[in-house]
Amino acid sequence: MALVLTEEQTMLRDSARGLISDKAPVSHLRQLRDSQDAAGFSRDLWKAFAELGFSGLLVPEKFGGSGLGCVEAGVVMEEIGRTLMPSPFLSTAVLAASALSRGGSEAQKSAHLPKISDGSLLAAFAIDEGAKHRPLQIKLQAVRSGNGFRLNGAKAFVVDGHTAELLIVAARTGGAAGEREGLTLFLVDPRSKGIAIERTAMVDSHNAARIEFANAEVDADSVLGEVDQGAALLEGVLNIGRGAVASEMVGLSEEVFGRTVAYLKERKQFGKLIGEFQALQHRAAQLYIDIEITRAAVLKALQTLDRDFEHAESAVAVAKARAGSTATLAVQEGVQMHGGMGMTDQFDIGFFMKRARVCQELFGDTNYHADQLARMKSY
Amino acid sequence: MSGLEDFRRETRGWLEANCPPEMRRPMTSEGDTFWGGRNAKFSSEPQRVWFERMRDKGWTVPDWPREYGGGGLDAAEHKVLREEMAAMGARSPLSSFGIWMLGPALLKYGTEAQKKEHLPKIAAGLIRWCQGYSEPNAGSDLASLQTRADSDGDDYVINGQKIWTSYANYADWIFCLVRTDPAAKKHDGISFILFDMASKGVSTKPILLISGYSPFCETFFDNVRVPKSHVVGAVNRGWDVAKYLLQHERAMISGMGERGVGRPLGQVAADSVGADAQGRLEDSMLRSQISTFEIDEAALSAAAERAVDLAKAGQSHPAFSSAMKYYGTELNKRRHEILMSAGGADALEWESERSKGGARARAWLRTKANSIEGGTSEVMLGIVAKRILDLPGA
Question: pLDDT, tens digit, for every residue of B214-261?
Fold first, then answer.
């Protein structure tokens, strides 16, 4: 398969770009932040997303979606990255939809996927517990109790956790922290007794929450996939999420870069456009090259996820690691080349720097994935 | 699509049946590369067999037209062949500046007579070419070259000196940039011309490099007579040909890092550095350098694949090969820095049998030229800034 977008994918990109650039430029995020919006995103826009079919992109047609793949999800994420639009797309349409389609029973799929597809159900994927992404270190306990399980523990950095109507929670039903064996995914109603949700305002003005579970009870039907055998499902969904976030970072990097190059062509100092200085030209060229190479690596990972899911692990690690370092470089150069203006809140560039830092941490940063790659290759 | 799958199956079958097992192992020395030419010698029987079978199929130049000795494959088929060869670790049967650089330029700018004369001999490995571009006073500023070609009847008479001519001492023919109009502006008076290195007045002198090898020469022209029909493209428009050819040269050099197959770096490092009980390298900083390198290498390889696909889709920027050249060569230098660090003191031996005559250190030193030859990294960044980013005054 050619490592370029198909005609259909290009059309999808154009339609996503049209909607997002029109309805959700960076000023949209700024307005949500300044008004301390209770949801942290626009429900009207999410409805518009659903009407265009974006919320059901990864949902099989049988359940009301369009049954498309990770490349298409990445196309939308990239456009989201360009304007930093806060949206349930990642948590609901990518992570939850993937977890349910890949691991759900027919009953679970029928109950939730059509609602994800029509935009009426918001979900969140609760994985991390500590400051760093370490999925095998999950400690949240799920102990058998009566006909179901009782959950005890805490989750952090749950994207969209405070608005979710359905939580997908990774818990330990066996084994010890660090082991693959003994992980189980649960579908949990956030309004259940024993669950406390704290919205955590983050540096990037996007949504996240800490969630505590104190003897929260779930029934046996809420197990997603198999008890104790959830690691493969979890890692599969995480890889899809990593590909999606990497795409967001490509969009973000390219937008910052475009704004920065435009600035180099308009800002004058010493009687010259600063873009005439070779010191800046070479740095701009290096950043351009870095972004182009990362873009290829990310598309490669998304295509591999769609075509050869079981063997996509290393391509995904490469993509997420590269996207993280590229985005970090792009926002740093962006702020630096904008000079003092880059440091002001009034200027948008700082929003990109903040979001890039969050995307780095989501589902493993560059160091995490470099370490994973070394493990995969046994050194 | 199903036609392509059939092609893949047939190709895999043919390669399995025809590629000798010895030709599926990573190259370990310069002698493993077959360059062709009038004085070509095979270093082994499997090398000869592999070359001849591929030549007979037209697969030394798979995507050239059949009438010029190529395989006539379209871009999609060519990609399948490359993928299948890579999957079995099959070596390239013929290395050649004729294939990588001159051929594409002749296909675009050559007359029918020039194509018929030269392309089949390149495809069959009969003639080995070298490139006469740089001069002592025309390096990064290549267009200021001074080698003259003075008109004399049906001939040009060429006088001057080239430098950094790769393997000029082994080459049969040269493709050369010469000044045919000294009065014109520097880019406008240059022609691209072909001639036999056995012509009267041509001499070469190898240059000893820091690696202890001499892959480059100084090349001197003293009243060399060349028929005017040997000019490729229009007279005084040689810079167009030169630029087009440089794009191919840069694509080639950027690919050098990726061709560094063989044992994974992590394992090479484990030999000398050691690993802990869990199999992790004892040197944790080196381990992270290697994995970061491998991430960048995998990403570059995706970018190379994408560059080909973009070109096929008509979406590529002509200057993009400069971007790839920059990144590929800097990456290859990093690979060899890592290999030296991994090898420690063992990698410092220069002559011993144990070190295969200092192979690792010499290869490390060789890579330092990657970011200079074919346009320095700084020139590449300048081209990207000017032609792709359209920055002012660049």
Answer: 989 999 999 999 999 999 999 999 999 999 988 878 777 766 554 445
Q: Helix, strand or coil for residue B393?
A: coil
What would the pLDDT profile of B88-100 be if each residue is shown by its tens digit?
Answer: 999 999 999 999 9
Which residues face A188 on adjacent strands? A167
Q: For chain A, say whether B381 makes contact (Cβ under 8 Å).
A: yes
Do B149 and B193 meet the contact criterion of CB atoms below 8 Å apart? yes
Domain count, chain A: 3
**For the residues of A304-344, what is the DSSP string, one character each?**
HHHH-GGG-HHHHHHHHHHHHHHHHHHHHHHHHHTGGGGG-
Mind telling me how many Å the CA of A344 is from chain B's nearest CA? 25
The predicted structure's pLDDT at residue B30: 75
- Measured in degrees and rounded to the nearest 5, phi and psi for residue A201 equal -65, 125
- The whole-angstrom separation of Cα B161 and Cα B141 is 16
Q: Is A84 helix (H, G, I), strand (E, B) or coil?
A: coil
How close B158 gets to chain A, by Cα (Å)?
37
Residues in chain A with CB shorter than 8 Å from the CB of B290 are 374, 379
Does the structure's ipTM exceed the value 0.90? yes
B294 vs A contacts (CB less than 8 Å): 373, 377
Task: Outline where B153-283 has alpha helix (H).
Answer: 238-254, 265-273
Q: Among 2.40.50.320, 1.10.150.240, 3.40.250.10, 2.40.110.10, what is the CATH number of B129-237?
A: 2.40.110.10
The Cα–Cα gap between B40 and B62 comes to 21
**Residue B32 pLDDT grade (very low, low, confident, very high; cuts 50, 70, 90):** confident
**Domain B255-388's class?**
mainly alpha
